[in-house]
Specification:
By secondary structure, the protein is of the alpha+beta class. The chain is built from 12 helices and 8 strands. The longest helix has 20 residues.
């Protein structure tokens, strides 16, 4: 991995159309593009990539510089895991920041849940296992993800999970360490976060439990349109477990959605506890990691231009002309020190 070389800029990419928005600050959509007119050492391969475009003025106004640099740093550390989106390179212009990422068009897990309402236990187990593998890897790097939800879980063209959007990640959280920033998405907030107490890595296992619950019951646990009522349920009410599900999955949900973080599944041995739970006994984790397990659902995408699994709300959005306009400057010499060190290019062998 090296810093991006002079000459890499917006003109290196042919932006096709807006595809989807995967979060981040406003005006930060992910757009498909093909690499063109680039030097050989920055992957001039005519492949499709996803380009996340962020407005510097909005980032600065909201004081989110640290979040953006944290996202970049986490992306750099995520290159070697099969279920985390890969960063190919990042660069900047005087007005914008650009992340050039893996192109994934199997759709958000949220999109598929909306369409199908809920999944079978075997299908939910497969997705939960791949997500848990990704979270466990981040934890091994002392990174807490903090924003696990169906919108941040994508499916690739074969149906494997791709975890994306690292803007709320917290770096440097040791196994016994804690952090205290109030952040996340209301439906998936852990009790200790709501109580504004210091929290640890187990906050991610609570979120995994909430996502797994939603996959089999259609809604997150304790969900209510009244946010106050929902928070009261998260803090005080027993976990509702409607009948019809296996004892194994109910046991896992009770363990993950334990209100006391010190008694939660994963509090002692982290990912190892999740791996060893009975619900995951059908999973060969080595086969899972190497993608030797056939996904239970195939998106059947016909190619990179196939957007059948993307919400039309995003595919109808127009690309601002500034995104695809070639700037008349060298992006490697930006004078904006606020984002110094943002630019990066991955070596060819950095990816699986």
């Amino acid at each position: 991995m090296t810093n991006v070389a002079a000459g890499l800029n917006v003109g290196s990419h042919e932006v096709k159309e807006t595809l989807l928005d995967q979060g981040g600050p406003p005006e930060g959509p992910i757009r498909p593009s093909k690499c063109k007119n680039s030097r050989e050492d920055i992957n001039s391969d005519n492949k499709f990539y996803a380009v996340k475009v962020l407005q510097k003025k909005i980032i600065l106004k909201r004081k989110e510089q640290k979040n953006i640099m944290a996202e970049r740093n986490v992306l750099l550390k995520s290159l070697k895991h099969p279920f985390l989106v890969g960063l190919h390179y990042s660069f900047q212009t005087p007005d914008k920041l650009y992340f050039v990422l893996d192109y994934v068009n199997g759709g958000e897990l949220f999109f598929h849940l909306q369409r199908e309402r809920c999944f079978s236990e075997p299908r939910a187990r497969f997705y939960a296992a791949e997500v848990a593998s990704a979270i466990g890897y981040l934890h091994s790097l002392n990174i807490v993800y903090r924003d696990l939800k169906p919108e941040n879980i994508l499916l690739d063209s074969q149906g494997h999970v791709v975890l994306t959007d690292f803007g709320l990640c917290k770096e440097g959280v040791e196994p016994e360490g804690t952090t205290s920033t109030f952040c996340g998405t209301p439906e998936y907030l852990a009790p200790e976060v709501l109580r504004k107490e210091p929290y640890d890595r187990t906050v991610d296992w609570w979120c995994l439990g909430a996502v797994l619950y939603e996959m089999i019951y259609s809604l997150p646990p304790f969900y209510s349109r009244d946010v106050g009522e929902m928070y009261d349920g998260i803090l005080h009410k027993p976990l509702p477990l409607p009948p019809g599900k296996s004892e194994a999955i109910c046991s896992l949900l009770v363990g993950l959605l334990q209100k006391d973080q010190h008694r939660r599944l994963g509090a002692i041995a982290d990912f190892l506890e999740i791996k060893n739970h009975t619900f995951f006994s059908p999973i060969n984790w080595d086969d899972l990691y190497h993608k030797r397990i056939t996904p239970p659902y195939n998106p059947n995408v016909k190619g990179p231009a196939d957007t059948q699994h993307i919400d039309p709300e995003f595919t109808r959005e127009m690309v601002p002309s500034s995104v695809s306009r070639t700037p008349e400057f060298n992006t490697g010499t930006s004078s904006n020190n606020t984002f110094n060190g943002f630019s990066f290019v991955a070596t060819e062998d950095s990816f699986l």
